[in-house]
Amino acid sequence: MRKCTLVLLMFLALSVATGAMAAQNLVKKVDNFIILVDRSGSMDEKYVDTKDKKIVLAKALLERMNAMIPELGYNGGLNTAAPAGEIQALAPFTVASYGASVAKVPTLIGANPTPLGVGLKALEPALQGASGRNAVIILSDGQENAGEGSLKVAAAMAEKYNVCFHTISFADTVSGNQKLLDDITALKSCGVATSAAQLADDAAMKQFVKAVFYDEAVASDPCALDDDADGVDNCKDTCPGTAAGLAVDASGCPIPMVVKLKVNFDFDKSDIKPQYHQELADFATFMKQYPGVSVEIDGHTDSKGTDEYNQKLSQRRANSVREYLVKKLGMDGSKLTAVGFGESKPVASNDTDAGRAENRRIEAVLKGVYKKK
């Protein structure tokens, strides 16, 4: 017995979790809804081709509908017309609480007249206090013989309170006014019209509930999105949130500002020739517009020699430039670092004398300063 109980509890927990996951994929279409049930005398008649009275079928239909409405944070209300009455004021919707209200819908009618417009008018106080998108769902056969015309009342409410009217028709060949219900539904393009006969099918009921209450969220492809608008899609972007206007690399990361210093070195040398002194002086002047910015002085070589030797040579070249900038040009040594990259980052072919000369170079990388598009 304990084993069966445990299995049942696990099943219930899985069902709740599955329902919660399903709800996460749904987006509500309305914020507030009120269902208005017509209790006039004609609703006490049997629905054509059935053995049941219209009001009994209406209540049973509401019970089925209620079970299919997802709990997405709506406020739900329940009213009757003929006579006008409030069974549930607008309140946060749950299947359980709304189901308890549906159970209170009276199925004993008698010879009530049909002031459908009065029943609609009675919804106005609730709509006055509601914010967001509103829906009114009318269950009726459309007959009216007393009070203000329901179409006129509904039109005013649609305009004033942004109400979408949806109708579930119990009109039949014996009694009813289908045109009136259609006209009320058509007051706004969001209106949905159906009939009690159609909603006898569960698939049709689910479709009606979806049409009125929610949309299915479309799962977006992250690779089709570029949240920071840098030209690199989210799947490839390793630097999300890049500031607008910055140039980025293939990974979506801002490209640091690199100043190529025209300081080339003779083969196997790290001393700075006098012809490059002005280049370094110009760089020191340029850096005054970036006070406090750290700079990495990068040294590079051509491919002659071993990797280990070239690494050390490139470091000596970077150190030589850094020392000149600090000692000769007065730059802040705490903001300057020197890094040798050997032959690992050529900018020209190492197969020609000109290309190798170009690779024996110095670059200054400004930390935290990035290229603009």
Report what the structure shows.
- The chain has 373 residues and is of the alpha/beta class.
- It is 34% helix and 19% strand.
- It is built from 11 helices and 12 strands.
- The strands form 3 sheets. Strands 4-3-2-5-6-7 form a 6-stranded mixed sheet, with helices on both faces.
- Helix 2 links the parallel strand 2 and strand 3.
- Helix 2 packs antiparallel against helix 3 and helix 6 runs parallel beside helix 7.
- The protein is rod-shaped and about 110 Å long.
- The two termini are 71 Å apart.
- The N terminus is likely disordered.
In brief:
With 373 residues, the protein is an alpha/beta fold. The chain is 34% helix and 19% strand.
How are the elements arranged and paired?
Layout: H1 2-24, E1 26-28, E2 32-38, H2 54-68, E3 75-81, E4 85-92, H3 95-102, H4 116-121, H5 124-128, E5 134-140, H6 150-161, E6 163-169, H7 178-185, E7 193-195, H8 202-213, E8 214-216, E9 256-261, H9 277-286, E10 295-299, H10 307-327, E11 336-340, H11 353-359, E12 362-370
